[in-house]
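Problem: given the chain below (188 residues), write out its structure.
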Amino acid sequence: KLIQTNIVDLKNAVNKKLSANGEFIVGTSITASDLGDIEGMGLLKKHFNAVTIGNELKPDAMFGYASVNPRTETVTFNGEELLVPVLDYSRAERCLDYILKWNNQNPNDIIKVRGHVLVWHSQTPQWFFHEDYNLNKPLVTAEQMSKRLEWYIATMANHFNGPDSKYAGMFYAWDVVNGAVSDSSGTY
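Solution.
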């Protein structure tokens, strides 16, 4: 059996050394495919008090991995009608529901979540940057892109952290931008 119950768990050992109030976050990453790994999830629950969900909160997953022609809807955002791609929360919620169930059953041993990531060019479909979300149309203006990003970030924050969200209080942080500086050129 991989999970040994007779060893000290990492999260408590680290907190004893580094945190007077037990608030030191010891995290790891998971993806939805990890949820079925009983031994791996056992290690997570024993040794970690936080997770970063690997891909399920990234824009391409939230847009349902649509490579072309995403489903769209018109929403009212900041008093203005805005055409937006339909968000698919199912992959992220699969992970979050697992953690929420654990937290509800273990209120003295909760697992917090780091949201990763709201904006990342590498895992955002290219159509997101084009008029009508169509790759055959021109890129949107900077003003239009700012509105899209503001809608996306606000919608994600409200869905996962808003007062009516069942996940409210689970997230301790969000990575807003990933890879803002190029690894190769050092430019934005």
